[in-house]
Structures are given as C-alpha cells and as structure tokens.
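Lab channel / #folding
Pinned by the channel admin:
"Please post every new chain as: sequence first, then the structure tokens as a reply. Keep commentary short and put observations after the output so the thread stays searchable."

First post following the new format, from NK:
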Amino acid sequence: MKIKRYCKKKSIKFYLSNNIRLAIKLDLDGVYIPAFNKSLNHLAFSFKKNFNIVGSAHNLKEIRIKENQNVKKIFLSSLFKKNKNFLGINKFKLISKLTKKDIIILGGVSKNNIRKLSILNHSGFAGISYFE
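Reply from TO:
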C-alpha cells in the first residue's frame, strides 16, 4: 500500500478510522474510534505490541466509554469552536480531570488562543484552525 510505505519512510504513524479489523489486517500503527462508536467487540482481538487505539469524546459519558474501549488517548472536543459539542475552558478543565487517559485538545485551537492551553490538563492538541 503506497500511503503506508510513505508514512513508514517519513516516520509518520498511520491510523485508520473506525475499522479495527482492517487496521490489524493491514498491520497499521493503530486505529481511531470516533465518539459515536460505542462497541467493545475489539477487546477480543489480538494486537501487536505497538498498536495504539485512540478515540474521541465530547462529554463524560463518552470518556467512560472510551476508557472501557481501552483507548490510549482521547481527543476531547470542542474547546473553542462553538458547535453542538462546545465545552469551553471551564467545562473542559473539569471533564479532563476525571480521567487518567491522555487528553488531546480539539476544536478551534488557533494562533490567537493557543496560550490558553497552558492552563489545561492535556498531552497535545490537534486542529485545522491552527495550521490554516
């Protein structure tokens, strides 16, 4: 597979979204499980040692589901982007303290608000706005 070879050559991790069986079959680095996926079926699968599972959540209930799915990191959104999943700084701080999983900030991070991230519990951020 062309993209897999490219990622390996550039030392980029290759994750597949929402298809754990295919990610295992293709020998990828891991899988991303979206917030709407609440299945625990993958817990019966065998994974290679460095296979990572990451997921997203928008509230405490979804965080608990991701914990049960044994994800390594949780993308928690939305911090700044005012959409239906908007948390804001205070709610984000409260919710992120209720898990021991690594939290990745998502949702409206830009060069204008990136300094605010220093007051939050997180292990990184992702976002389109920042890189535009």
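NK: The chain has one domain: 34-131.
TO: also worth noting, The radius of gyration is 15 Å.
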